[in-house]
Each structure stands twice: as structure tokens, then as C-alpha cells.
Design goal:
Cytochrome Bc1 Complex, Chain D, domain 2, single chain, elongated, mainly alpha, about 45% helix
């Protein structure tokens, strides 16, 4: 949420630890600013005095430190640091808990009987504190950029090129191409080989050491490669195969381009591999009752003709989004939350050096709709688990900086 140009407050970004108002000290601090009836007080907490901060500390010590830790540095999993957080944001969030809008029983109970004046002062107190900082050792490790899923998939797939061809286009008769397949199908197929459900000892051995994360990355890498037909001889009658393929279109799509992520596309696939797969379904060495029933009526020539038809079709890329890198995601997040998560907007939270488990929890809540915010819901909706983990890890390891908001002198 952006403030209008008519706001009466000037934000100044200063790398200081704490809130100081020039000309004010605990002994001569002015009273807290009074809000006129009907006037918005969203930014009230940016005008806190030293007295307000001291009173906020007393409230926080009685109501907040058990969960949020001494000086606002949390040691509890899933509970955020509050030290150095933006004051107006804290005030608004405390109000939201008090109204029940956030649906957190522990927080609702903690703030239930606090006045709005107390909430304002608690927010001012926590905003005045030095923010948490990432551990130097883990921050150094985090500085080593994690490979994006596509790059990780390409690296993990290096051992596959000898049989399946560069970028997954087969040049070896009898070996399937891996392009043009939805990642969901390809992951399922690889798991079947890995478990022995599909009988192929070489594939089982090759996949035995591959993690589930890398299976997903490999499948994503191949899904994003430019589709092309297998570069192998194609020996059957394509016209006869086209007529027989009418019975297959319901599952595998017209011209062999599937619209179902769980069903493989056949367009451009190696003909010998397709014929061998049909024979495997027919003799039950591949287990699938639907395919077994369909293959039972096919003789060897019919299988070759079907394979020839599909091998001659042009494969198409599956409907898969290329994931953004962590750097690309953070460029989007920094537009609102500040460079490296150091927000200079008092109404928007800082993310830098926040607990990683809390950041993951919040992103999941926005993605799942438990926390409601139109902008954040739209941002989080497309995040994969890996992207959630990488974003949370990135911001948790950024250096946190405090912000001082100074009122311009009155005219």
C-alpha cells in the first residue's frame, strides 16, 4: 500500500539503531500526537516520543516477551522477530489481531484487553530496537547462490544425454526422447524405474542415487527444451497408423499431444521405443490395465504402424512455466519491501534478517489463503516449494537496517 503525495510525513532512511526525535529527550518529550476524530492515524507510530517508547517497553515486557523474546529477538520457531520492524506496520497488525482478522488465538488473546494507545506504544517500542542480524557463518554460506531448478536439472541430467540425446531428443533407436513430456508424467515414470515397478536395471541403477528434488528438476529441464522429433529411422506405415490412432486420441490427444499432465505425449517419440512399449503393455511387463486391454488387439505390424504415425508428428512443449530465479523474485519483492528486504515504508514490513521459518510460514499462508492480502496472494500464488524456501532463505540472511521517520518542521 503506497501513501498519497499529500501525506504530512517525510520518511528519511537512516542507518541508525533506534528512533530519535531531534530536540527531544525523556525529560522534555512532548505528549503523543493526538488524532482528531475521523482522521487517519495509520502513521501515528512513526511520531512516537521517548516516553511512548518507554511505556511501550513496559507493556511489551508484560505481554510479549514470552513468545517474541527479550528485546524483540525471537527464539521460538515460527514466531517473528519484532525488533526494528516498521512501526506503523506493527501497529496495524496488532489491531488486526485484536479484531480477530488474523485468526491467531495466541495473539488474539495477548492483545485482547490492550487499548489502542498501548498497541501504538508497543509498536513504537519494538520499532526503536536494533533489528536482529543474520549469523555471519550462515550468511556467508547463503551468499553462494543456489542454482535455479532448470540449471540444477540440466546438471543432474548430464548422465542421461548418452542414451536420450542432448536436450532430450533421442538419436539412439529404441531410446525414448524426453522432451515434450509434462514433468508430472516424467517424474512418475522415473520413480517407477527407480522402484523397479518398470523393469529396466540400467534405469534403476542410474536413478538410484537421484533425489526427489533432482527428479523434479530433471523433468522441468526437459519440459522446457525446444521440442523436436527423435532423429531415428521410422519403419512403419504412417497412414495405417493414423487410422489406428483414432482409438488413442481420447487419452494421448490429437496427433499425440496430450492435454493431461499424467498422460504422456507421443508426438515425435522414437518409433522403436513406442513399439516396444506397446509390446510391454500387451505382455504385462508394464502394468497398466487400460493400456493392456488396448494393446491386446494389436499385432506387431499394427504396433509398428502406430509408432510410425506418432513418431512423424511434431511434438509441442507442455504447458509449464519457467520458474523465476531467486534474484528475479527478489527484484519483485524489493519493490515494496525495500532493497534486500529493508523496507523504508512504515506501513510495509521489513524482511531482512527475519526468522527463515517464519518467512516460510507467511508465504505458505498467503499462498493458501489463510492470510488475506490481494497483492501478496497474487505474488505467492505461483510460488513453488523450492521458490518459497529460496526466498525465505535469501531474506533471512540479509543485513537488517533500522529506519528513522522524522516529521518535517511545522510551517
Amino acid at each position: 500500500m503506497m501513501r498519497s503525495a499529500q501525506t504530512f510525513f517525510l520518511m528519511v532512511f537512516m542507518l541508525l539503531a533506534g528512533i530519535t526525535i531531534p530536540g527531544c529527550s525523556p525529560g522534555d518529550a512532548p505528549e503523543s500526537p493526538k488524532v482528531k476524530p475521523g482522521e487517519s492515524d495509520e502513521l501515528r507510530a512513526t511520531q512516537a516520543t521517548a516516553v511512548d517508547v518507554a511505556e511501550g517497553k513496559r507493556v511489551a515486557e508484560g505481554s510479549c516477551i514470552r513468545c517474541h523474546g527479550a528485546n524483540g529477538i525471537s527464539t521460538t520457531k515460527g514466531v517473528p522477530h519484532l525488533a526494528g520492524q516498521r512501526p506503523a506496520y506493527l501497529h496495524l497488525e496488532l489491531r488486526a489481531y485484536q479484531s480477530g482478522a488474523r485468526g491467531d488465538k495466541a495473539m488474539d488473546g495477548a492483545v485482547m484487553f490492550l487499548s489502542d494507545d498501548a498497541l501504538f506504544k508497543v509498536a513504537a517500542y519494538y520499532a526503536s530496537l536494533d533489528p536482529a542480524q543474520p549469523d555471519a557463518t550462515t550468511a556467508a554460506k547463503a551468499a553462494l547462490a543456489k542454482p535455479d531448478p532448470v540449471s540444477a536439472g540440466k546438471a543432474a541430467a548430464a548422465g542421461c544425454a548418452g542414451c536420450h540425446g542432448e536436450a532430450g531428443v533421442s538419436k539412439t533407436p529404441g531410446m525414448p526422447s524426453l522432451i515434450g513430456l509434462d514433468p508430472k508424467y516424467l517424474v512418475t515414470a522415473m520413480k517407477a524405474y527407480k522402484s523397479g515397478q518398470r523393469k529396466n536395471e540400467m534405469m534403476k541403477t542410474m536413478l538410484s542415487a537421484i533425489t526427489e528434488a533432482d527428479l523434479n528438476n530433471i523433468a522441468l529441464y526437459y519440459a522446457l527444451q525446444k521440442p523436436d522429433r527423435a532423429q531415428n529411422p521410422n519403419a512403419g506405415d504412417q497412414a495405417a497408423g493414423k487410422a489406428a490412432a483414432a482409438a488413442c486420441a481420447g487419452c494421448h490427444g490429437d496427433q499425440g499431444v496430450s492435454g493431461n499432465p499424467a498422460t504422456p505425449s507421443l508426438a515425435g517419440q522414437d518409433a522403436q521405443y513406442l513399439a516396444a512399449a506397446l509390446r510391454a503393455y500387451k505382455d504385462a511387463s508394464r502394468s497398466d490395465e487400460t493400456m493392456k486391454a488396448l494393446a491386446a488387439a494389436l499385432d506387431d505390424n499394427a504396433m509398428k504402424n502406430l509408432a510410425a504415425f506418432y513418431a512423424a508428428q511434431q511434438p509441442r512443449p507442455p504447458n509449464v512455466r519457467k520458474p523465476l530465479t531467486t534474484a528475479e523474485w527478489t527484484q519483485r519483492c524489493d519493490r515494496c519491501h525495500g532493497i534486500n528486504g529493508n523496507s523504508i515504508d512504515p506501513l510495509l514490513p521489513a524482511l531482512a534478517a527475519q526468522r527463515v521459518d517464519y518467512l516460510e510460514k507467511v508465504l505458505h499462508a498467503y499462498r493458501g489463503g489463510e492470510r488475506r492480502n490481494t497483492t501478496m496472494a497474487a505474488m505467492a500464488a505461483g510460488l513453488t516449494e523450492a521458490e518459497v524456501d529460496n526466498l525465505a532463505d535469501h531474506y533471512a540472511h540479509q543485513k537488517a537496517r533500522a529506519v528513522v521517520y522524522v516529521m518535517p518542521p511545522g510551517k
